């Protein structure tokens, strides 16, 4: 009774440490790839529009430049303004480590419930919106109010679209959903998951502030949402906010890829399998962000008052997905 | 022929069937509505054809062919002719705005699933499980016909109702007799032809096809 215990505990311990290593690798990978992905999206878009465009590593260079500069804090800004960049970056890194991008054997798996992930993302959004209000400028408040309007409509869709997949697994744990997807390939392509994928794609665009909802390349007063909230940031703080926003896009695209096309996600902690999973993950991200860039060439920004129509549409898609997966299949 | 692949195809057709009904509520361009109606006709034909393959009788295959010709070819063609004569491209001011009508569609779908419980309980086959889809489209069609102002949107609402009824008939009974389907189809064709004439007359009298202009038919 006494003798086998240390061995088992030791085996458990090395498994645990390998699991933590994979989780940390995931966070580092997402943090490193996110600006490159942004650069890739911009490069594809520039090429399609017949422009030269910047290099893929340009966002990293911008970040490096901003990290060296001293942040200026407006005289009237309070604690929310100072804390928001750290909160946004921390929540993004936390989600990046917890979602089973590389391996379903994640030590954080027991707590990576879908609701936790959506809640962490929402915490970052709220922190930034409060920071926008905190400066007391007109644009910050306007951006914060718009962001909250959009967030209130997007979060239910995010939850519903993954619920559609969780009904057939019987759990809202993301690791369980992805593990079921890797073992049961036939059920990945069902009407329910097609509907849910469409809903999650629209929710991703809205949450990451991409084109039909928010134009990331403009500082026009009347239309900006995300840029309006970050207008007062400078130096290191701006770099953190921009970096975290890029990570959020990568996290959401990765979620889309991992949940709906779970091929290649390792179900163990073998280094080769994890490395293969990482390569496939980056490849899937490249495909998705390429598609995003192509779609952005052909779409114009929606009027702000038309955005709720789009989001209500994606909510209905998510609801239909839940109904279909609960009743039809 | 009723393996898992067959069931998957049937579910796919049913999913497309509801999705196009929701899409009709979503879009404002009348030409896009007609396109969605065409896709819905194709989905309905798919349901009928899958059931016909399941039953394996010549009559069922004839019914599926007839449904395909009518819903996916003939009716959209007629509607496009109306649209060419009536030069208005968009549903500008529906009585209920688009986001509210999408949420209403979600509620109507839930209502359809709740109301069709006894129908689903009839049998364990996947066809009976899919029957609420038809009722959902029927309710969405009613909603469209009552809340839109343009004549063409209202005709599309009526056609959605008919598609819904046809889908319930196919899914709940596993096939409709040829004579009955022929009667319903000819009836529907006649109704659309009459509505086409009516729309053109409306356009000639008022300059648009806003049905709220028909004040003289109201009770005073």
Automatic annotation (TrEMBL), chain B:
It is found in: Cell membrane. It is a multi-pass membrane protein. Its main location: membrane. The keyword Transcription regulation does not apply. One of its GO terms (cellular component) is plasma membrane. Keywords: Cell membrane, Membrane, Transmembrane, Transmembrane helix. The chain crosses the membrane at residues 6-26, 33-55, 61-83, 95-116, 128-145, 152-172. It comes from the Bacteria. The keyword Heme does not apply. This is Hydrogenase.
